[in-house]
Amino acid sequence: MLRAARRLHHPRWWALLVLGLWLGYALAMLTRLPTWAFPVVTGAWLLLARWRRWGAPANPRPTTRVWPWSLAPLALWGFYVYLAASFGEVDLGAVFFHLQAGISEHGGSGRIVSALLHTLGMLLLLAAFTWLVRVDRRWRTTERLLAVMLLAGNPMLYGLGQRGAAIVTDDGAWLDRQYVEPVILDAPRSPPNLLLLYLESLERTYADPERFGNAYEPLAALGERAMVVEGVRQLDNTGWTMAGMIASQCGTPLMPAGLLHDSQFEPLGRVVPGVDCLGDLLAERGYALSYLGGASTRFAGKGVFYRDHGFARVMGREELEPRLPDPDYVNSWGLFDDTLYDLTVEEIRRLERQGEPWGLVNLNLAAHAPHGYPARACRERQGEFDGTDILYSVECSAWLARRLVERLEAEGLLENTLVVVASDHLTMRVSAWEQLVAGERENTLMLLGEGIEPRRLRVEASTMDVLPTVLEAMGFVIDWHRAGLGVSLLSDQPTLIEAHGLETLNARLREETALQERLWEGLAPSQRTSAPDAVVAPRG
């Protein structure tokens, strides 16, 4: 016993344990291995280390004071593992965009604690690896090769390499040629109002009762009298809030400005100024437009985007919090959904009194990863929240959204109004992550209003198809049933995903620059010279 205890006190086992824990953790975060595989991988590592006598070679040599070449590659992998652990699937576009658009006023205080813990764990990993290389000559002679392998295999560096290669690609404008300027050819005699409800991270995948119980049931009940679209996939560069809203309102992925940004160390002064979006089109036709969201509009250029694209009133946490009956009833991101929706009703009443067509975009918070922010009204209805169960928050978000629509209908505020209920993007890592990634995932999209036949529409689409679909559902006639890269799902035209496949579009996004230049036209001279491609053949 004493001998075993002395062995455990030896730095060898502590170093090997740190390395094994990191290996198990990384594999659990980066693959679809179940969580219970984490300690299994660590145990297998320790058994292998004991068999190979790592850190205690049979022919020991004096310790050499060297610094491993692998330290920097390991640190880069540590950062990538942190992103995967925090968000599930790493989107480098999101990282680049938030760095340029601004990350002030975010509500992710828990992320800061997580980042600090990951940093501490990373320092322990680097120390353990350095000790092993210095003590065990076998590691010292092979770790340079390991450094090369770590660099070559890091997805972050691979992604950067693809973006660099886009500069010299043979055809960097295929996506740009697919882009169709949003043009309204004709409008209805009595243009309808528009209520666009974004439900943060509330993807339609949750509608599967076998995996998620009745969490989605309130929305499913609302969908019984709506057109429910099934199969709305997520393209790269559309998987975070600003990207999801831009995809669905502008018909294009949010390709970050990158070096096109004229001042690399200041937040963006404009967001996708080179394209017309839903707000631009409606504002030109006399619509009074408002945006209300529970979080700050300063985060990620949200306020800049809406003000720059036709919205006269843009209200987030800073503008709405002073109007709360209870100023302490807020969360780290901002307003809870029940109070946000109360203020939304007030804003719609104000818009109705003006007597002109209106549009209101609303973004909630209840199902925000990683655990959600269920409102007081939900706690009173659903019972105690354990602080981690995302399905509790999903049900809360769905129930409050349905209640808002029913409340507006009861007050007569939705006459001649199209209601669109959509998730802004697929959720990031949450407590139900393993169930979510067990099959294909899709976004929520449902439309309610006069002339919208209740039905289920199964189609391979993306959030880019929301813009033309909404315009046609409102009665507007648009050129070729297309807007941006989107195709109206009310037409028989095939979507880009149907015509070319999701992987093809994602590959193009990683390798092209012309569409990026279009989005950020004005920040850099445009190099576009080619005309749009011909429209693809109709579906079926």
From TrEMBL:
It comes from Halomonas pelophila. Residues 253-475 form the Sulfatase N-terminal domain. Its main location: membrane. The chain crosses the membrane at residues 12-30, 36-54, 66-85, 112-133, 145-161. It is a multi-pass membrane protein. The keyword DNA-binding does not apply. Keywords: Cell membrane, Membrane, Transmembrane, Transmembrane helix. This is Sulfatase-like hydrolase/transferase. It is found in: Cell membrane. The keyword Methyltransferase does not apply. Pfam families: Sulfatase (PF00884).
